[in-house]
Amino acid sequence: MLEIIGLIFIGLVILVLLIDIIPIIKDWVGRIRIGRYNDKEMWNQSITNIGVEWLNKTPKIKVTDNTRLVAIDMLKGNYTKNAIQYWQEAALLLGLGEQLNCKRKDEKIEKEIKKFLRRKFDQNGQWIQKPEHIDAAILAYSILKLNFINPDLYRPALDYIWELIKDNLGEDGTVGYRKSMQNYRYVDTIGFICPFLVSYGIKYGNNDCIDLAVKQIQEYEQYGMLEKHNLPAHAYNIETKVPLGLYGWGRGLGWYAIGLIDAWNELPQNNKYKNLLEQSVKEFATASLKFQQDNGAWNWTVTRNETRPDSSTTATLGYFMLNAAKIDGIFKECLASSDKAIAYLMKVTRRNGVVDFSQGDTKDIGVYSMLFNVLPFTQGFCIRMTNLHYIFKVVNDYDKEVS
C-alpha cells in the first residue's frame, strides 16, 4: 500500500514539474529561427492562420507571473480569468473581420467566426454566459464590425453591454473599471468601451452613448495625461485628480490609442465630435512618434530606451498610426511609423506565425508583468493592422506618396 502511495506521489510530482517545464521547452523550440519573414503577404497569411486556429481555442492568459508550480495556480483558479479572455478574443475577431472586409471572401474564416458566435450567444441573440465586467464591451464592438453578418441578430447582447456600462457609471459621470474600484479611472477602459459606445450609438441612434464615450476620453485627457508630453498615466483618482501608476506604460498607450482612434473612425464626418477627437489623434500621434525606437518597436516603458520592446504596444500603436495617416498634416510620419512597426513585428514572429514577446497581464496599478510571451490580443491587432496596410497600399498607392 505504501509503495502504491509512493508511486502516486512521485507521479504527481513529475506531472507538476512537466506542467512547468513543457511551456519553457515549447517556447525555446518555437523561437528557433524566429523572425525570418520578409514578405508582408506571407506574414499576413501566417499570422492569420494562427488567428483562425485560436479564435475558438484561444490560449489561456496567465494572471500571475509565476512560472513554478503553475499547477497550484490552476487548482486555485488563479491561472486565468474570463475578463482577460474577452479582450484576447475581441482582438482576434477584429483582426479576422478586417481580413474579410479588406480582401476577399474566406469560407474558413467565416465558418470559424460563426462557430464562435454560436458558442457565445443563444438563439435569441443574448449572451449564453453574461459578462460581469466592462471588458466585454470590446468583444461586443468586434461583433458590430463584422460585415458579413447582421449585428441586429445580437441586439439583446449589445443592449446588455450598454446596460452593464451604465451600471458602472460613477458620480463623476464616467465609467469605472470595476464597481469595487469606483474611485479610479483606468486608461484600459478607454479601449474597452469607447469604440463600442460610438459604434452602438451611431447604429441605434443613441446620442447618450456617443456623449459618454467622448466624455470618458476628455476626462482622461484632463486628469490622466502628463502635461506637455501627452502621455497617459495608468489611472487617476477621481476625487483627488491625482494620476496613478506609470506614465509611459506601453500597453496603456495602446489602450488609449485604440480607444481614441476607433471612436474617431466610427464618427461620421458631420458629427459634432469629429474634429474634437481628430485634434486628440493628432496630438497623441505627435507625442507617440517621439518614443518609437529605431527598430520600429515601442518599449514596455516607452520613455526608457533601456526597457525591452513590447509587441502588444507596438501592434496597437502601429495600428493607431496607420489610421492616423488618414489625417492631413501627419500622413507621411504616421505611415512611415506604421511601416517600421510592421517590420519589427515581422522580426519577432515565430516561424509558425505566432507573434512573440508581448508583455503579460498587469497585476495592479503600477504593478506590471515582466514576462514577455504570446498574447492573442497582439496577434489580432497584427492581423488588423496588416490588412489595413494592404488597403493603403492598393487604394492610395502610398509608396509613391511617401517616396
Automatic annotation (TrEMBL):
Reply yes or no: does the keyword Transmembrane apply: yes
Q: Which Gene3D superfamilies match?
A: 1.50.10.10
Write out the transmembrane intervals: 6-25
Write down the SUPFAM superfamilies for this protein, in alphabetical order. Answer: Six-hairpin glycosidases
Which superkingdom does the taxonomy of this entry point to?
Answer: Bacteria
What would you give as a GO molecular function for this chain, any one?
hydrolase activity
Q: Which UniProt keywords apply?
A: Hydrolase, Membrane, Transmembrane, Transmembrane helix
Q: Which InterPro entries match?
A: 6-hairpin_glycosidase_sf (IPR008928), 6hp_glycosidase-like_sf (IPR012341), Glyco_hydro_88 (IPR010905), PolySaccharide_Degr_Enz (IPR052043)
Which PANTHER family does the record associate with it?
UNSATURATED RHAMNOGALACTURONAN HYDROLASE (EUROFUNG), WALL GLYCOSYL HYDROLASE YTER, PUTATIVE (AFU_ORTHOLOGUE AFUA_2G14630)-RELATED
The entry's protein name is Glycoside hydrolase family 88 protein
